Amino acid sequence: MSESTEPAGPGGGLTTGEVARRLGVAPTTVRTWDHRYGLGPDRHTGGRHRRWTPADVARLERMCALTATGIPPAEAARLARDETRAAEPPAGPATPDAPARPSRAGSGLRLGDARQECKGIARAALRLDAAALDRLLIDAIREHGLVAAWTEVIVPTLQAVGRKWESSGERYVEVEHFLSWHVSGALRRAAPDTVPDRPGATVVLACVPGDHHTLALEVLSAALTERGIPVRMFGGALPVESLLAAVRRTGPAAVALWAQSRTTASRPLAQHVASMEWGVRGARRSPLVLTLGPGWSGRPVPGTARPHGLADTVHALEGLATR
């Protein structure tokens, strides 16, 4: 029986496989830290399988947090050992009935009651562990589907990382960029092939001029493609004339415009796109314009729609494109 599936023996404790899943690392990484840096369990149970106590796991979580800040592994291991020893309570009468307090060591990210997958993804991002991050993201998308994985796993993790660098003097900007890049790659791998054009069914996606935040449009593009809706994605900061040309050339059913901040959200631009027409006389058509992103908060833009959240946006566009 493997370490990752063997039930806990007398005395309890986690297997190496269970510890690895909790930390969001490979079991081989845990074993390497044990053999190379002496971060193994303090006590052993009978047999060849090792059991990890909460104190052992806290030491490994501290190792993850220290290496995420750029400290070399050997030095991080020494600090993790020293810090956890210093935190141990003085010897005294045993209190077996006292419940163990969960460790708060590790990433330092405020994830609240988020799904367990969020914690593994956050730890992998903090360690800049590309292989683990890709695997965890793809697993979340496969298990929950694109929309639920984005809403319940990816967005909470992105928000936690954003709060981390905002409260740390921008020390973790590289982590946010790293996580965003790998989320983008996972979305591309999870989405099916491009859907062929269907007259009057195409959806145009673009960030307004001056806005480079494409990730939410990337997941929308993947979700629509998954549902057989043709998409034309133009990415970040599309110039005004280029946006208008794209709309004229594609004759889309809808145009989704993303604005991250109010400084880039142009109400006149959204209204102008909504007023565009094409087609023969007597059968002219205009696109439905969706204003997406926090930049459009406040008073609605006349002649446009503002769905709330990815699921509502996908539902609105799915119904429009399949008419």
UniProtKB/TrEMBL annotation:
UniProt entry tagged with the keyword Repeat: no
HTH merR-type domain span: 13-82
InterPro entries xrefs: Cbl-bd_cap, Cobalamin-bd, Cobalamin-bd_sf, DNA-bd_dom_put_sf, MerR-type_HTH_dom, MerR_fam, Meth_synthase_dom
Keyword DNA-binding found: yes
Signal peptide boundaries: none
SMART domains: HTH_MERR
Lineage: Bacteria, Bacillati, Actinomycetota, Actinomycetes, Kitasatosporales
Keyword terms, alphabetized: DNA-binding
Occurrences of domain B12-binding (ranges): 200-323
Gene3D superfamilies documented for this protein: 1.10.1660.10, Cobalamin-binding domain, Methionine synthase domain
Protein name: MerR family transcriptional regulator
Disordered: annotated segments: 79-110
